[in-house]
Amino acid sequence: MLTEIITIGNELTEGRITDTNAKWLAGRFTAEGFAVARISSVRDKIEEVTTIISEAAGRSDTVILSGGLGPTSDDVTKASLCKLTGTKLVTDKKVLEHIRKMLKGRGLPMNENNRRQSEIPDGTRAIHNPLGTAPGIWLEYNGRVIVAMPGVPFELEHMTGSEVIPRLKERFGTTGYYSRTVMTSGSFEAMLAEILAGFEKELPPEVNLAYLPSPGVIKLHLSASAGTQNEAREMVDNQVDKLSREIPQYITAYDDEPLEMTVGRLLKESGKSLCTAESCTGGKISSMIVSVSGSSVYYKGGVVAYSNRLKTGLLGIDSAVLEKHGAVSRETAEEMAINACRITEADYSVAVTGIAGPDGGTPGKPVGTVCIAVNSPSGCISEIHRFGDNRERNILRASTAALNMLRKRLLF
Q1: Do residue 211 and residue 351 come from a single domain?
Q2: Is the peptide bond before 358 cis (omega within 30 degrees of 0)?
Q3: Is 16 strand, coil or helix?
Q4: How far, in Å, CA of 204 to CA of 224, rounded?
Q5: d(Cα 400, Cα 410) in Å, to the nearest integer?
Q6: CA 167, CA 367: separation in Å to the nearest integer?
């Protein structure tokens, strides 16, 4: 069963707010076994809203609308549904009574705008909204179902779970759906796609593979639809097992576990501690580590030494090393890592120094050059990376690469 999602409002089409409702609805409906075919946004114009609903209803079994049900003049969803069906608004007495009780409980008077919220297009059914004054609307149209819900996120989410999805399942039924996410690091999208070309060719038609890239991390999202969820789960799990054999060197975790959580889990399991020494990442690695609940068990702390003066003064880097090799060098990164462990008495350390950009590069060390070192009980290792010319992405890529180096050291 195909589903389309349409979010309504000038604030969306003008980019004044982020469309969190569309993302949430897509995730929830997909998880419930409904195939979301398209997501659209439209401004508050009756003609445009009517047109986009009509087009969606011509393609999909279910059309889900968010927004435009409030009491103000720019709320045009109900008027658009009337235009679509050639009907007029009528008062729903149950909704009107609900609004009265809700306003009374808040000590507010009923006004004309509130009263108008009890009106729905003739021939439709109101969907109860216990959390607000705007009801949802259920419309059967040419064999399709059109559902309109308020744009207030907590009202929409409650209505979706308690009313809309149960009614749609009763009306259409659903197929079994299941998905998993495999986390990878150390590659880039084009190369990973080339490596997995044969794997993709052998995928069953019911299984879909999506690449979800971000700086330093590529998520591989595997999903399947089948007669039952157990059947879908078996198909996806089989493919995840194959991936584990195809690219073990790139897989960092399963089921959307970020690197900082993976590293934390490994440190906890081994009973080891960690510290950090950062220059170009400016505390980003430390921030990622402490974002994980319980990180105080294994993370001792860190030093952000941006200038050479602090590198020598706080971390004890030999000035001769800085003069001979420069701040951005394997040698400096290794001394940062080793001395951080000495100062904090941590078992492991991660150190990063580089040129985040957009300025500061040289022909020998261009913008994006980053040196990373990891010190451990078995010694210190280091790597030189060449990232791009975007400062924000370079900081995130460097931080991710550092955590991935640490992960490998903890495992091997």
Answers
A1: no
A2: yes
A3: coil
A4: 9
A5: 15
A6: 56
Same domain, 114 and 19: yes
User: Which CATH number goes with the domain that contains 246?
Assistant: 3.30.70.2860
Strand 2-8 relative to strand 176-185: parallel, antiparallel, unpaired? unpaired
Q: Specify the pairing of strand 207-214 against strand 369-376.
A: unpaired
Indicate the residue among 207, 225, 254 that finishes a domain. 254
Same domain assignment for residues 196 and 291: no
Supply the pLDDT for residue 95.
Answer: 96
Amino acid at 187: S
Q: What is the pLDDT of residues 263-296, one digit of tens each?
A: 999 999 999 999 999 999 999 999 999 999 999 9
CA–centroid distance for 260 within its chain: 16
- Asked whether 144 and 65 are in contact (CB, 8 A), the reply is no
Burial 283-321 (b: 16+ CB within 10 A, else e): bbbbebbbebeebeebbbbbbbbeebeebbebbebeeeb
> Phi/psi zone of residue 236: left (φ > 0), alpha (ψ -120 to 50 degrees), beta?
alpha
